[in-house]
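Anyone up for a design puzzle?
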């Protein structure tokens, strides 16, 4: 908890009351939830960000797109447009948001990518589309209770699990820990690869104490690939300036610091929209270290905004590399997740 956060306790109580009343209205039927017209998987969290939703969505895409006609739907956080849109070769991050654009760039040949604030209306549009989708992944929709998903996946990080966090503004929770009871599976993300069985048991016990007793708890870690040049060419250097716009960049910074010679970190807020002054700062920091022939290393999500917003000639002037990220499960947890998808989404019994 942040220092002096206890001073915000009265505001957290008010926030708790509002969110509990909203959930109560859904629970008793005063606010209506509608089943998705398409088999669906909901990926979300209880906190304000940083749990790894986009890498998890990409993991599910890789798992399913060879078997099913697949679509993703998000509200397109940070976009400058409104309403329902389908990604196409002419769209930009400004129009659909950085994360949907990232997904479209990586998987657009194999899946359909949609954005829309009104998810019920958007799902009906997708269901009536000539390109029929067999399953849709709803990104960041755990609190969007107007839609009932087939499988509700709740993400929480190993570093800041929901069961030890607090409601806004004291902590980062968007609703109380009791919201975990709606999850069909809880995934502890960003775990150390050598997480012990005893640590897993503790996390399972604490997670399920707020959810349903039999809710499966799975564990995932992240792995980073080899840096890829953002422009057409470039030679990677082990002397690195990190550029991030994440809710929590600590795991990334720790990884880069352990693998490369970390010269400096330029850290911006989550979903940051880079402006001309920011590129001036990046250039100035690069010039400070130019004698060491450094590179700027950024995330896939940030690369979308950097590439879209960079001034003319900037990408040729400054060597920028992108660090790919993927989610990993143990074989047992991967099988458990696949079985849940079959049972909950496709209504197939694996027994």
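Challenge accepted. My sequence:
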């Amino acid at each position: 908890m942040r220092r002096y956060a206890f001073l915000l306790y009265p505001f957290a109580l008010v926030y708790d009351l509002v969110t509990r009343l909203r959930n109560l209205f859904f629970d008793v039927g005063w606010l209506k939830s509608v089943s998705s017209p398409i088999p669906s998987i909901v990926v979300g969290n209880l906190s304000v960000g940083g749990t790894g939703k986009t890498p998890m969505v990409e993991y599910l895409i890789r798992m399913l797109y060879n078997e099913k006609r697949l679509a993703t739907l998000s509200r397109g956080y940070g976009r400058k447009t409104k309403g329902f849109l389908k990604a196409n070769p002419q769209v930009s991050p400004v129009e659909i948001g950085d994360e949907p654009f990232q997904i479209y760039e990586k998987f657009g040949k194999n899946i359909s990518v949609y954005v829309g604030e009104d998810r019920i209306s958007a799902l009906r549009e997708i269901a009536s589309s000539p390109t029929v989708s067999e399953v849709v992944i709803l990104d960041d929709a755990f609190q969007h209770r107007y839609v009932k998903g087939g499988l509700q996946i709740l993400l929480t990080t190993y570093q800041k699990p929901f069961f030890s966090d607090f409601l806004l503004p004291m902590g980062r929770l968007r609703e109380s820990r009791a919201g975990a009871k709606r999850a069909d599976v809880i995934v502890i993300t960003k775990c150390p690869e050598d997480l012990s069985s005893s640590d897993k048991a503790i996390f399972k016990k604490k997670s399920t104490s707020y959810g349903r007793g039999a809710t499966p708890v799975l564990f995932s870690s992240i792995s980073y690939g080899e840096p890829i040049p953002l422009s057409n060419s470039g030679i990677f250097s082990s002397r690195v300036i990190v550029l991030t716009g994440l809710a929590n960049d600590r795991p990334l910074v720790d990884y880069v610091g352990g693998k490369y010679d970390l010269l400096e970190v330029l850290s911006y807020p989550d979903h940051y929209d880079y402006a001309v002054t920011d590129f001036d700062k990046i250039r100035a920091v690069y010039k400070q270290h130019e004698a060491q022939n450094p590179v700027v290393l950024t995330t896939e999500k940030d690369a979308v905004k950097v590439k879209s917003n960079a001034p003319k000639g900037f990408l040729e002037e400054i060597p920028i590399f992108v660090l790919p990220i993927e989610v990993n499960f143990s074989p047992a947890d991967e099988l458990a997740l696949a079985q849940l998808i079959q049972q909950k989404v496709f209504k197939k019994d694996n027994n």
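A detail worth pointing out: The chain has a mean pLDDT of 93.
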